[in-house]
Amino acid sequence: MEDQVILVDSNDNEVGIEGKLAAHCGGLLHRAVSVFVFDSNGRLLLQKRASAKYHSGGLWSNTCCGHPRPGEHQTSAARRRLREEMGIDCELLQVFSFTYRAAFDNQLIENEYDHVFFGKYDGDPMSNPEEVEGWAWMELDSLHQNMINNPAFYSAWFVACIEKVLTLRHVA
User: Fold this and answer.
1) How many Å is the maximal CA-CA distance in the chain?
2) For the chain, what is the domain count?
3) How far is CA 70 from CA 18, 32, 33, 54, 118, in A?
């Protein structure tokens, strides 16, 4: 059965449920989660999305992301995706939310109300190769400069929220 996403209005009020692919084909606003895990030195754990992903394959992104399932709280979804994609678990704190819209060459449209979580973890992930083809710990200042110089190497949502992440990094 196809994964379902939670459709929301511009204030994140639930307005329905839709299949994940249908929501992305129609550009419907839906709830999402993005996780940023930092180590004790303040470096951010990045993932390179698996090339086979339905969009943004092969691009670098934040530690993990995904969609809450119907009836699933955002925090639970964020921790679930962190375990599924990176094989790690840590406490997460929701830090901010934002919306963004991005159209891709394959006709899919991301239109998300994204809840952003920060966590701390020291160690190496055990990433799932179906989700992730690479990972790296990166200093935020170096990452920011690289994103400015090479935005096409990064996922759209990562580029859309990096300034806010940099502003709030002390929370992690």
Assistant:
1) 42
2) 1
3) 10, 12, 13, 21, 23
Q: What is the pLDDT of residues 116-167, one digit of tens each?
A: 999 999 999 999 999 999 999 999 999 999 999 999 999 999 999 999 999 9
Alpha carbons 159 and 157: distance in angstroms, whole number: 5
The alpha-helical segments, DSSP class H, found in 42-132 are 74-86
Encoded tokens for 101: 């819209």
Cα 54 to Cα 51, 57, 133: the distances in Å are 9, 7, 14
Establish whether 112 is a catalytic residue. Answer: yes
Catalytic, out of 18, 64, 65, 110: 65
Q: What is the CATH number of the domain that holds 24?
A: 3.90.79.10
Which single residue is written with the structure tokens 């993932």?
Answer: 47
Query: Tell me, what DSSP letter sits at residue 27?
Result: T
- Among 18, 110, 112, 131, the active-site one is 112
Q: What range does the domain containing 11 cover?
A: 4-171
pTM over 0.90: yes
Tell me the two tokens of residue 54: 């339905």
Q: To which residue do tokens 């004790």 refer?
A: 40
